[in-house]
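REQUEST ID: PR-0412
SUBMITTED BY: lab tech R.K.
PRIORITY: routine
TASK: structure prediction, single protein chain
INPUT:
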Amino acid sequence: MGNEGDGRPLLLLDVDGPLNPYAASSQRRPAGYRTHRMRPTGWENPWDKPLRVWLNHDHGADLLALPYELVWATTWKSEANEWIGPHLGLPALPFVDWPTMTPQHGARLHWKTKALVAYAEGRPFAWVDDELGPEDREWVQQNHGAPALLHWVDPRLGLLPDDFSTLAKWAADQEQAAA
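STATUS: complete
OUTPUT:
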């Protein structure tokens, strides 16, 4: 994949959960978020209600302030650059083009895990998602030869200041270890 990058660790970003707290009460938008109605692939039919997405516009600056190379790691794939990034003030970002987006029946390992390790090509990375489990952490530890942080975000709350602090500290620790 030729993913040498610029020396910073990758930040692999899921949209639904971390950036769009979809599991928050359907009656109440979380504080600091704005409601957006979108029609990404799969929502094009005019008779279907547009997809409701809650975004905190401050998250773009918060993400850009982190010492990472940002990458979309979401089922939105390239459409995150069209539907999500502009609302957050993010430039077009690279994205993981999943070979498959189908969960394996009965699998405990998330369907994204192997593809993200392959995408990272041995680079340090942090993965922010709301569907991480111990199996993913164990598999990454055993199959990825560089540091990795798998950071779970509550899909009812989205990214919070503590999450950004955790990500910043982990990146700083990686920079110190490399020095």
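NOTES: Helices lie at 58-65, 79-83, 85-88, 113-120, 134-143, 161-178.
REVIEWED BY: pending
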